[in-house]
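TEACHING EXERCISE
Course module: macromolecular assemblies
Task: Read the component lines below, then compare them to the predicted structure of the full complex.
Student: A.B.
Group: 4
Components provided:
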Amino acid sequence: MLGELLNPYYLQVLCFILINIMLALSIYVPLSSGQLSLGSAGFMGIGAYTSALLTIHYELPLYVTILVGALLAGVIGIIVGIPSLRLTGVYLAIATLGFGEVIRVLFVNWESLTKGSVGLTGIPQLGRELLKFAKSIGIEPSALGLKNNQFVYLSLVIVLLIIVLFILWFVIRQQNSRIGRAYSSIQMDEKAAESMGINITYYKVLAFAQGAFIAGLAGALFAHTIGYISPSDFSYHRAVEILIFTVFGGSEVIIGSVFGATILTLLPEVLRFVSDYRYIFYGIMLVILMAVRPQGILDLYLFYRLKGKRIKRGTS
Amino acid sequence: MVLEVKNITKRFGGITALKNISFTIQQGEIYGLIGPNGAGKTTMFNCITNIVEPTEGEIFFNGEKITKLKPYKITEKGICRTYQNIRLFPQMTALQNVMVGGHSRISAGVFRSVIRTKSQKQEEKLLKEKSEELLELVGLGQLKDQFAENLAYGQQRRLEIARALASNPTLLLLDEPAAGMNETETDNLFDLIKKIQSMGITVLIIEHDMSLVMRLCDRITVLNFGEKLAEGTPDEIQNNEAVIEAYLGKEEEETIA
Amino acid sequence: MQKYQKLFLIILATFMLILLTACGSSSTSTNSGGQSETSIEDETSGEVIQAKIGVISYLSGAGAAYGEAITQGLKLAQKEINEKGEVNIELVIEDSAGEAEQAVNAGQKLMADDSILAIIGPTLSTEFFAVAPEADLNGITIMGTSTTADGIPEIGDYVFRNSIPEALAIPAAMEKAVKRTGAKKVAIIYGNDDAFTKAGFEVMKRTAEEMGLEITTIETYQKGQSDYKAQLTKIKNTNPDLVLASALYNEGAVIIDQARKMGITVPFVGGNGFNSPQVIEIAGDAANGLIVGTPYFGDSTDPKIVEFNKKYEEEYGKKPDQFAAQAYDALYIYADALKRAGTGEDRDAFRDALAETKDFEGILGLFSFNEVGDVVMDVTVVEIKDGKFVEFEE
Amino acid sequence: MLIEQLINGITLGSIYAIVALGFTLVFGVLGIINMAHGEIFMVGAFIGVLTTSVLGWPLWLAFLASIVVTSLLGYLLEIFSLRPLRGKKGVSHLAPLISTIGVSIFLENLSHHMFGAGNKPFRTAFAEIRFEIGSITIYLVQITIFVISVILMVGLSVWLSKTKAGKALRATAENLETASILGVDTKKIITLTVIIASGMGGIAGILVGMAFNSVSPQMGLSMGLKGLAIIILGGMGNVKGAMVGGLILGLSETLLVAYGDSGYRDAIAFIMIILILLIRPQGIFGSKTAEGR
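Instructor-supplied answer key:
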């Protein structure tokens, strides 16, 4: 029974769910401060390529390269975030979408480094590195009643899960603090927030960079999960997919991103039997969802009701 | 002298919204800013909080020049305001709204907020207590967990005042706080502003309700088409020829009655 | 009250989705080729080798046409093989939608199923690069039928392909073209955001340098472009004797059409991906003068190919392309290896048997694997003349 | 070579401009970005292929059919994905974006099923007519495209400023509520806007088919993204800006290929908008107030 549950297929799907949750959060955080950034695919690419190249060329340990990848994405997030302050709403969305495309074109053309559209192969897989490590300190998977393969994916899932839980913990704690209140107030009314003593420049760039960092982290982990990356992994489609995770689940609450990423990663797997029509179905679903529930499946009111507080959505 | 406005001029394109305005406000005063619509009152507020930058002139707060400071810095210095067209954070509860107002009075950064250090917990607790007190003060204690967007109009106005008070201001700017209120509510507002004055906070108020202004204010400046028409105590203003002609004349009956 | 109803409905719908997820994971399209009844009998008699082969194919999205051709080729081969009765193959087909992640998911699903002996696919090189290392580490044979990029069989011992790499197809075509035309100067155009066309370009450049040809200019295009005139104008002005185009037939046909309109009359040399009857359909007369190297020549008079064309058309109502042909051969190669392995359950035995494949006679010609699992076979060079593919004459 | 490349650039730019006109109209009136516009353009191109190559209709009839079908699509888009979102509480600017993305995914995949994934040839005798001036070849199609784009731009400008319906449309763009108080049937105006914008997408689609002999379900995406870039470049909601922005982009892409590295062709649109957003966020022709929504 346990062996059945530890089927690498389920574990692999679980890995992608966890990575997609991170990606959804990378859009959620800037959005919680009122910034619609569609640059996540680009930042994800930066994290993925940085970490992959560092491991391939310098054989640095993965925890270092992944962190460097995420940090670089975060720093570029600051650099992009500062000029982007002048832009709001759809302008920001399109500019960040453009940023992502520029990054992708750069990956395609910077052949000496990225091997262009052929992509980078042979990226060390995180789970396998963990297996090597476990063996080096004398832990055999068989001692735990696991096959090598099961150990690889189980350890990968566990690492990803810990990271996702940490990010969730971080974002939720931050949200219920001075920082989080500043983000929400900027989202709801920037001018009013500023006259309440909030340094909107600082907080907007902070949120933007946090989103970029999370996206970079997710990208680096993606590279070390799948073992192969190419520029087409970080295209317009990825950016839109990430946006849809968050909006589908509900962009007002953090749990919406988690929910959206989970459901929508499972959906193509579930819909394998209607494979030919699944994207048609997907498109229709988005239109209906927006018409019925434009704030996403989960929203603030639902959230508060679940917490047992009696609040009704106003009619004014 | 809490606030000194010195020769402020503000032009938008070819239109002069404020023309060489000066006045000073003393510690503990309730100071009124009145004038017909379009006289430039809200623009004056915006210049003081530097939401729009004055074209010419300087503003001093407690002797310090604040003309070029960012709006949030000005709030940190101790000036906070409310808006004519209420600008609450609609999907936050009343309590959260007030706590946002206290932003500049606590200091936790990302690290301390996430780790929840002892000092961070302490300041959050104090801020929450203070915010609840302020909600009680404005009479919204029972409604602290309601979303701001679901409050009644008068309640929203009072919530905005509580939010501004949370920033511990020395000078509070109120932009038409009585707009849309009925008589009872206006009377409550009068008491509230008096209470705020008794807390040692100086108040600068824009208001159209003349009876309230005359009862409330220690001194008043009258603006008309961006120019300063008169300054003085309510009595002086009520008897000022120019003011009566330009502004009070046609409304005298209903407002002074 | 209405609000609560709506909310309830939404929650209900969500739970249904989750439920669907839980139940749906077993919904794989299996195809036993309509021979299941006889096969059960055969199984009892113990003569027929039973095997389950996993297929990962690009069945939804922009490139679904490739995946469709491949699965049709496989199914046709499966039907014939099972009819012969020596081997009974069951195909388990999974969609990858052209995305590396979904291909990996599909691959994991197949690899985790112990009853699956080996895998065919996925369709794109970018997908293959992600799936193949997994398969190799899991000790399950994986063979690409349409993956032509460099370095694919080198991934590992369990990784093979029967699709002819650009490194074989392009030099053959270039050599013949240069010999006939006496070309000295060549211009190159290729799609730089696609792994397939990029790989082809690298071969072209290398070969041109080796042959001592002068490269007048190198131009690129990107997916979804429809205007190639700027690049072609530039090429035209460098007066090349040949244009080397590493493009998939979809874009390639449009490029050659626009080039002819612009007055570029020199022959085009293309890779494997440029070889499709579609080129003639899209570009019409403009397609004349296209030279491609290919393992598969659909209009050949070879009786095997004529027979294959006939059967395919009967089954699916259209002419097969090289993707269908390569997939068709791939399953026959698997069946051949199965016979030699003698069992359909031992993944390692199958791998060893497959690696020994030598001079297998398929519709594409004589086929062998070299030591790393790459293709050894002759390349046919064809050209379009008077609106038809004909064998290239020197 | 320069002259030839300039002709190439102007042809491409004119098509970009027509696509951008559709974007800019919808944005000007509704304040939303219609992400499905590129796909409507693609459907327009396919209708052209279907009517000329398959049914053998004359070109003018193909144009008409294409405009009719895309206008109808525009109407359906308005009814199903835009109208339900309008005036609803709690609808952020994200909702119409996602909703139209949904429509674009739907249309692209539907076309895969109906027409197949590959390129379809678009062959008309008209596309073969050409003039040779010295070493330079100009196709009549190229001239036609430029002329049509200019006519559309001028026509639209005149229509907006001179006719009653146009004025009503501008009033609606200015302020929805005020316009409806003034007696403008805003619902009708909005529907009309989306229909006109989509019809122009159809025209652009058929022109691309003629000029480049290349129609495929994927063509909508890249054209859509370019269209977005152009309206930011020219100024959101500005008719003249769409035209000039389109030409600038078409020319700079062509010249980049001619004198630079063709590998960066797809990035130039975005590099340009990133620059323009930083230097002049309201776009070349945009008014100052357009900044930030």
